[in-house]
Structures are given as C-alpha cells and as structure tokens.
Known about the structure:
The structure holds 3 protein chains of 3 kinds.
Chain A: H1 18-28, H2 38-41, H3 49-59, E1 66-71, E2 80-85, H4 91-107, H5 114-121, E3 127-130, H6 133-141, E4 144-149, E5 155-159, H7 188-198, E6 204-211, E7 217-224, H8 230-242, H9 251-258, E8 270-272, H10 275-284, E9 287-291, E10 297-300, H11 311-315, H12 318-347, H13 355-365, H14 372-392, H15 398-415, H16 421-436, H17 440-478, E11 480-481, E12 484-485, H18 534-540
Antiparallel strand pairs in A: 1-2, 2-4, 3-5, 4-5, 6-7, 7-9, 8-10, 9-10, 11-12
Chain B: H1 2-17, E1 28-39, E2 42-50, H2 52-60, E3 69-76, H3 79-85, E4 93-95, E5 101-105, H4 106-111, H5 114-123, E6 132-136, H6 141-145, H7 154-168, H8 177-184, E7 190-200, H9 207-210, E8 217-228, E9 231-236, H10 238-248, E10 253-259, E11 267-283, E12 292-306, H11 315-343, H12 350-357, H13 359-365, H14 369-374, E13 377-388, H15 396-405
Parallel strand pairs in B: 1-4, 1-5, 5-6, 12-13
Antiparallel strand pairs in B: 1-2, 2-3, 7-8, 8-9, 10-11, 11-12
Chain C: H1 7-34, H2 38-60, H3 69-74, H4 82-111, H5 118-135, H6 137-162, H7 179-185, H8 187-193, H9 199-202, H10 212-238, H11 249-254, E1 258-259, E2 263-264, H12 267-297, H13 303-321, H14 329-356
Antiparallel strand pairs in C: 1-2
Helix pairs in contact in C: 1-6, 1-8, 1-10, 1-12, 2-7, 2-8, 2-10, 2-14, 4-5, 4-12, 4-13, 5-12, 5-13, 6-12, 8-14
Amino acid sequence: MRWFGQLLPFFRSSGRSQQGRRKAQHSSSGAGQGPARSADLNAALSRSLKKNLADVRRLLGDSADLTVREIGGSEGDSVAAVLYLESIVDSELVNRYVMTPLMEWTVGKLTGDRIAHVRENLPVGRLQELNKMGDLVTYLLNGYSIILTDGVAATFAAATTGGERRSVEEPSSQTVTRGPKESFTESILTNMTLLRRRIKSPDLRVESFTIGRKTGTFVNLLYLEGITLPAAVKEIRDRLAKIDVDSILDSGYIEEFIQEETWTLFPTIQNTERPDAVAAGLLEGQAAIIVDGSPFALLAPSSFVKFFQSSEDYYSRYDIASFLRIIRYISFLVSILLPSLYIAITTFHQEMLPTPLLISLASQREGVPFPALVEALLMELTFEVLREAGVRMPRVVGPAISIVGALVLGQAAVQAGLVSAAMIIVVSFTAIANFVIPTTNMSAAARLIRFFMMILGGTLGLFGIMSGLMVLLIHLVSLKSFGIPYMTPLAPFIWNNMKDVLVRVPWPIMKKRPMVSGQHNATRQADSMRVPSGSDRKREGGDR
Amino acid sequence: MKQGVKLLALLLLLSLTGCWDRTELNELSITSATAIDRKDDRWIVSYQVLIPSVVSGAMGMKGGAQLPITVYSTEGPTIRETIYQSTLESPRTLFFSHNRVVIIGEELAKSGGLEELIDVYFRNSDSRETVAVLITKGEGRRILEQLMQIQIIPGDGIRETIRTERKDFSALPFINMYKLAMEMTSEAKNAVIPEIYISGGAPVTSADQMNKTTMTSKLKLGRLAVLREGRLAGWLEIKQALGANFLRNQVKSTVMSLGCGKGESSKESAIKIINASTRVKPVLQGEGEPIRMKVDIKAEGTLLETNCKADLDKPDTIKGIEKQLEGEISEVVRNGFEETQKLKADIVGFADLIHRKHPKQWKKMKADWPERYSQIQLETKVDFTLKRLGLTSKSFKKMIEEGDDS
Amino acid sequence: MTPSLTKAQCTALVVMVISPTALLIVPKTVMGYVAQDAWISLILSACAAFIAAWMLGRFAAEAKSGVPFPKWLNESSVRYLSPVAGLLLAAYYYSVASTSLHEFTTFISVEVLGTTPKIVLKGVAVLVLMYAAAKGIAPIARISFLVLAASGPLFLLSTLLLLNIMNWHKILPIADHAWNRILLGGITPLGWFSEVAIVLLLAPHMLRPKEVTSSAVWGVALVGIELTVTVLQALFVFGPNLVQSMEYSSFELVGLIEVGNFIERVEAFFFAFWMMTAFLKLSLFFYGAIHLLETTLKLPFSRSPLLVAMGMLLWLDTAFSWPHDMNQDLTTNTNTVVLLVFNLALPIALAALYWLAGGTKPSKGGSDA
C-alpha cells in the first residue's frame, strides 16, 4: 500500500491555503501548453470504453509503456479494461490486487451497478473515483492503475505506485564519523519515511504542493506546529505557491525561486542530505522542504551561523566540537582573507614582516616574472580548474590528477621560477581551509569573495581589504532570511543564543531554542536537567 | 543590482590603472644599517644593503662564497636629499623599515647636526624611531663594511650585541631614536650614545678574510659618548658608564668582581647583580648651598665565582661580602657621577627629578643648572643582599687546602 | 522606518561618532597646549560633556519611536523652526562628513599609502559610504556594536604590550600649568564630545527612545576614558616635551610595540581596526545628512537618486576643496566653534524653545514611515 494522494483536495493537511494549492495544481495540469490541450483534458469521460481507450492512447501518443488489459467479453467488446504505465507501477500489486479480483468478477459477478461493486470490493487501499480525462491522465502518470468499465462515464484509479528506486545509502556529502549514516533518496516517500521515524510527534505538519507544469513535482513543506514561527511558514507557503514554471528537477530550483535576495553570494537557505539534520532543524524551529526527485532537502529560515554547524558537533563531545567549530570559523576567515592579506602585506606593508621572513620571501621572488597580484590570481584560478577537473574525472583517472596537480603545477612551477614557493603554500592552504567549511554553498561563497578581496588587497593594500570587509559586513548584516536577520545572534547581539555559535556548550546547558525561530516555545529541556558532576552521582548512587 | 555592477566596474578599473603604492619584494633595497657623517657642510649617508638570495641561502646552508651585504654612500646638502640621490645609482628603492642601526660619525655629533637627523626620523613615516643609535670615532661607513662572525647580517648583529649587553652587563644603555629625542628634549637637554668601534687589526671586508676561524678585527662596543645640548662633550669609560646607569635606574643585571677582603687589590670573587633598583631623593638646602642627592640602591645577587678562603657557611662571611660589594657599588657610582660632573653634563635625570619634586624652585635653578649640577653632593646608600651561592659552598681552593691539612 | 536600535547599539553608535576623528586630533591639540596636564583637561572636558550629553539626551528622549527627527519637530511646538533646523543640520552633517573624509584620507595617505592619488581613496571610501547608507541605520548600528565590543580587548592589549616602556613619572609634576590654561585646553575636546548630539537623530530609531539619555552619557564616558588613556599612554612613553610636536602620537605608540623578536612594526594592524571605526563614523554622518534631507524636504522618491547625487557631491567636494592637507588652525579653532554651535547651541536653543512653548502638542495623524 502506498501512502499517496497529493492531488485532490480530499487529502489531509493543516487546511490552509487551498487557494495556493489549487493554483499549483491547475498549473500542473497544463493550461494551454503542449499538445495536450485543455479542451481535451477537461472533457468528461464517455460511456463507451472503446472511446475512452482511444482518447487515452491519443493523449499519450500511443506511448510504448502504456499497457491496456482488456477484461471480459469477447474480442473488441470488453467489459472492462485496466490501464497502467508499466514503468511506474508495481506489477505485483496490479496483478494481485487489481487484475485478479476484476477477472474473477467479470467471469462471475460484475453485473448491476458495476461501479458500486468495484468501489466496495476492490482490495486496494487508495481508490479514487474520477470522471475527467485530465484527472485520469494525471493519475495514470503517477503510477495508478485505471479501471475503465464499459457503459459508465466514471472510472477508478487504484494506487499501485512502484518502480525501481534507489535504496537508502550513506550521504555523499556532509559525512560524519559518529552519527546516523542514512541519507535521503530521490523518492519523496522514502524521505518522509526517514523523517517520520525520527519525529514521532503529532505536531509534525506536512503540506503538499505540486510544482512544475511538465514535471508535476511533488513538494512537501514540513514544520512543527507550535515551534516554528507561523509568519515564517506563511511566507514560505506563499512563495512556494507563487512558483509557476515548466520544471522542477531538483531542490536547487526551488531554492532559487523562494530565496530572499538573489543578488547575494551568501546562501539564505540550507540544504542537506541527512534526515537527522532536517529533524534537528525542525526541532529548532525551521521549516523543511522536501522535493521529489532530489535527495537534498531545504531548511528555512536559516542564518549565517547555521552554515557552520555540522551534525557531528552534536553527536561528539562538547569540547572537541567547540574546538572544531572555532577552527571552522577561522578557516572561513582564512579562505577569504589569506591570499589578499599576503599580497597586501608583501607589496604594501613590508615593514610588518619579521626580517628573516622578509629576506626569505624576497629571495624567493627573485626572478619571478609576475607581480604578486597576478601570480596569486593565476595560481588561484589554476587551483579552481584543478578542483573542477577533479569533480569531472572518472574515478579511475582521479589519482593521476592529484599527481599532475601537485608535481607539475606546484613543484615544477616553483623550480622553473614561474611562481614563488610561498605563494603555492598560501594558495594551497587557502584551498584546504575552504574545504573545512561544512556546507558547500557557504564554501562556494567564500571561494568567490576571495577573488574580490584579492583584487582590493592588491590595488589598495590594507585600506582596500578593510573597505572590502566593511562592504561585506554591511551586506551580511542587512540580509534577511524569511524575516529573520541573517547574522543573528551576532548582530543583533543576543547573548542567550550564543551558546551554540562559537562553541557548543554541553547539552544540559542548552535549555532554550534559538530565538531565530522558536520564540514562543523556547524551552526544550526540563528545568531539572543539569550538567552531571561527580557530586551529583555520588549523592544518587554511592555510599549510603 | 545596479549598485553591484557599478562597484564591479570601478574595481576592475582600479586594477587596470595600476597600483600606485605597490612595490614588489624584488624591487626593494633592504637596508640593515645606515651611517651618517658630516663633512664641512655636506651630509654623507652610507647604506648597508642586504642581498636576499645570498642571505637566505646562507641561512639555509653553509655560508657561500658571496657576501650577503653591499655598502655604498651618497652625499648631499640635506639628509633626505642625500638619500634620494641614491636613486642615481641604485636600481631599487631604499627600504628603511628594517633598518636596525644608525651609526653616527663623531664629526656629526661635534658639529650639532643631530637635531636635523632626529627631525628626519620623526617626520617621515618610513623611518622607524625604534632604530638603535650608536656613535663611532671617525667615519661611520667603516663600521658598515665590517663583517661579523655568526651573524650573517652585520646590522642585525650590532643591534643584538647592544641588546644583550644591556640585558647582561648593563653598562651601556640601549638608545634608540625616540629615547635620544626624549633625552634631548628633557629638562637637562643632555643625552648619551654608546660607542662602537673596530677593535683589532685590519677591517674584515671580504669573503676570504671571513674564511678563517679567527677574524683579524671585530666590532666592539666601547665607551659612552656624552652629549651636551646636542653636541659631543666627552666620553665615559665602561665602569663610569655603569655607575651612571645605576643612577639612571637602568641596570638590569651586571657582574662585579671583588677582592677577598676590604682593600685587597686582586679580585678573587665575582658576583652577579640582578634586580637592582635605584631611588634618588633631592634635598634642597637653601640658596647658596649645593644640593644633596640621596641615592638609595637596592640590589640582589648571586655568587658566581670565588677563590677566597673564607667559609661561606657562616653568616658573617656573607655579611662581609655584602658589605664589600655595597662599597664597590658606591665607589662605581661615585666615580661615574664625578666624571659627569666634570663634563657638567646631567645625563642621569636629576634635572627632571628636581622639576618634578620641587617645581617652584626648579624655575629658579633652570638657568644655571650645569653649574649647580657640578656642585651636587652625592650620598649613596646601597643595600645589597646575596641571595644565592651557587652549587658549592666552599671555594675549591679552600677544599684543596683543607685536604692538605688533614 | 521601523525602529530597531537597542540601548547598547545606540551607545556604540555614539562612541563611533566621536572617537575616530577625536583620536586623531584631540591628543595633539590638547597635549600641544598643556603637555603633561592634558589628562586633567580631558577629564574636566568629559565632565562638562556629561552634562551636555544628559541635556541632549533628555531632549532627544522626547522623540516618538518611528517618527524621524524633523517630523516630530514639525509636530511639536517649534514647528516653525523645523525646516530651518532640519536643513541646517543636514548641511552640518554633510560638511562634517566631508571634513572627516578629508582627515581620514589624509591620515591614510600619510601613514600608509603615500603615492595613491587621494581622489581614488576618497572615491573608494565614498562608494562604501553610499552602500552603507543605502542599507539604513540598522546594519551600521549592529556592526558598531560588534566593533565596540572588539575594540575593548584590543585597547587593553595595546596598553599591556606597551607597559614595559611606560614610565608614569613623566606626568609629574601635576598641574604644572596654570589652571586657566588647563580649562582652555578642555574646550577643543568638548567640541568633539559635543558630537553626541547625533542622538537627536538616533532616538526615533530606537526601540525605546527614553533610553537615549543613558546611551548618550555612557557613550561620552567610554570615549572620555579612551581619550584619557590614550593621552596618558603617550605621555608615559614619550614624555611631555616630545609629544608636543608629534602629529599622530597614538599611532607612533603602537608602532613601538615589540613582542619577542618577530612581532614588530604592527601598527598597520591597529590602524586597520581604526579604519573600520572611521568608516562607521563616516557612514553615520552621510546617512544622517541624507536622512535629514529626505525627511525635511519630504522627498517622494526612493533613496537611490539622492544617494548617488550626494555621493558624487561628497566625492568631488572633498577632492577639490582642500588645497593643503594639513591640520592647522582649521581643525583646532574654527572647527571647534562650528562643532559647538551646531551640536550644542542649536539643539539647546531648540530644546529651550520647545519646552518653553509647551512640549509636544497632541499630534495630528501620528507616526508614519
């Protein structure tokens, strides 16, 4: 039995924005685009089985995977027919629970009010009655088996969705050493399974949307009632409802459509492959968006500091987690600023260098043909090319790339006198620091800002870098993510929420949810929770 | 969005027009020491310039055959013009931020050109005021040409020499440009500069001269030059300089030698003085009377070496040694002070002291301070504590003699 | 406009408004006048500034949350003066922004970037200011708070690192100069402290405008402490005679910091931090000018054209108005008079008239953005 049924208003939801969903639904039925014309789709079914079948075949262009099994009666004069798209049904279910009963009945009993009989006796969990061609086609395309009977202008769609799906594997990005190793897959049902297993509260609300005219992608919006800010949920819902496009192939499309500001390098919506991260986000007051066909779920509203939190922080001990978190922030700064600082100091502020370092750097630069800024830009761009090539390389050739990169470009370039060794060190360290940032979208932002800073540092020295930093800071501080300032809790400074920013304090101390979201339901632990200490334990157990 | 495009356009424009202040590392001429001389009315500035490839090569591996420095001079009517004249012969811009030492020629100090030099240092942003200042008899350029053992960069080496000297021997103070300026603008307007000279035979200026285990001549710190109102007035020997340093409260640690008993001329014990502090209190006695200065020196020390037969276990012996050293210190201080009185140069800060403690009387005394200074009576009181004796209690000589006896 | 500033942010803004340029100019001026008693002058000046800050704060606290300054003036008893006051203050803020930008660029040019044409430096700075003013006052306030929080430890660090070359005897004898000189030496700092009048502009943006009084006083206190400590540092290290000729003594000071043998000459680092505070001050003044113009003239269009126009004007004006770069009479005497007139005399006159005429009349229409 497949839990399904996103399309018709009978589906259970929090009951809001029926308007929105209907609009999305209408758009997904295709208003005037492509060969399926709305006139055809809005037509009612006819009484004649033959005509219905011919219509369906015509609408689908006689698709090769459309299977029609006519039942009962003699050739060309069947009593009923079962249609399904072979590629997306579970043939076992179709054969056993739809075809077998129907065959038995047509031999024996399918008389009288055929519709009522089927409706009452077909052993299928979800059974929809339809009377429009458009609905029939939609259900057909979603893996339902359609049961047509002659002489009746109505039909049934039985839920038999199946087909091959990827099984639950380890996440490809955002891996942890300690913690759950399940990751989302492309099937929205599997993803909902993974989430429901983690949050067993009745407050978990699931709202569904169908977005994309040609793709009819199912999009689910999840949130915890009573924890998430209603205003934020409303905002997300409104924006999702406004999307009107041809296709949604990945959650990235949704992200770009609903994000706050397009002209910014910084991501305002998180994405993750890990169900435990989504569950944690939901519990902190974020809303999750799961898109069918994409293993990456979205979390909104988000803030700058959340991009530096990794699930592993919460599964390991607080001390190592805090240390690594600080390292992440430092790495972020390094990956933005190190090349530009290096260029600025060695070309504008040489007095800051200790003399032995200055002499060493100066001797390395003898004979190098390029100015420092050009050298840095060249090496950074080379590294970006290498990185991109590494992604595209087939696995067998992968190691060759690292050898090429290290030896040829690094070592040989230095020995040939094209670049100085210090520059190679700076560039490599910057790149490594970039990888430390846990989320790819934030590290992408850092990669791009780096170039901007390099040019500023190379033309105006520290003054340029400070101007760039000022612009960056103002930009970051003025960004909002669904109504919440991006740099909370750093600016505006909320002392209470700093417990999870630079360090992670032990769990018994994190009593309140971050103000970003869970304002009206801030307590998440009982007051009696205390940090365990030796004296407590002794009093509890120990010597009486 | 439009703002972003504008910003981007301007940035690209900036990088295209070239950067005005940018100097690549291989366009710099890094000086590690400079020397300034005056001849008649002309300034002669000499620079000791590093050759980075040789220096870093030498630091990494063995000392190469090439020399790490090169020295040249330029001449002109004012200091800064002289420096910019170097562009006529140097392919790179002179870079003074890492300059360690400024050597002043004697002529310059005698003819009073120091004020102009200090003005240059304070007015320009690329000359650092933390550069060490030293004076030399004769031409400063010869000091720059001298190579040093162990330290590849001689300028660096000179600075380290004076630094370690101040830390461990404290006879000569470490004077840098701003301290010099401070002293010259203080109430007494007198200053001191340590001297550096080449001791030994011929100067070592080439690689084959360096390739021996002993060098024929070395750079060495010598006496202390005393400047009165910006001009060279005289010299203090090392011991006298130590005494003056005690009065200036700038002794960090030093070593003094004692005889075995009072009056002995041959010195047989050495004591290291650590933690010395001086307090001076002026006592004004009235109009025509000389001023009395009460000097209160507290010091602690360790015994480093002794050849005396006294028994160090007895407290009386310790007291005796302490008393002896107190006398030594007093003597050194008095000697130094009297020498400065002869030169009528108040380099120990007494003028400032009187200004601070008795501002009203100072106004009257200001005019003829050098005279009054030469009539000051010094009363020293030294309180020395011998804290530790080291690892052995008896001197080795005593142990041998005791062995003989038994 | 939605009010969003907290008390702490307002304090930070006050500090940012006064301290960057004050740090450049006040030490030299006061020490040049009274040498080792400069710290006494500063403390006296700060006390007078407390009173001024308190008065200005009380006046500003009359503001209603969300109603810009000219607007609530307009609805109060002194409405006939409101357009005049608005325009005068706008012109004043613009001119301070221009002067400060000039000071800022001169300083950078002298200390760090010698040959870069100043027009380029000014252009880049103006771009940053335009961007900051476009985003409004909330981001500026948030960043000010963070910078203030970071500058405390930094200040402490610099003092600690200089401890071994300090010699506190150098400020003796105390009160070497005549008392009237000491008092006069406090006038210039008072002029700079009086820039706390910006709270008039900030109060409507605050969540609780009543708190603006304590923000103003706290801000002045923090700046007073900062300036006094800076002056004392310079005196302890350099002595009273030398500092009288130094142009930027606090930066000479941090240039002397030496840790071990490898951290030396790090003043560029402190200077970069100071640059951040200077940017904040400039953006605040620029924003102030634009905000006042917008609200006094009740401009119906969005902010962008005004920003671009004012930005270009600022750039060209600063680039070509000063043939010399030097801090002469202009910054000590003339500037002090200007500061005192616009920051003290004008608001006090307004306040006096306001209270004499009976305070805020029940407003018609209430507040709108």
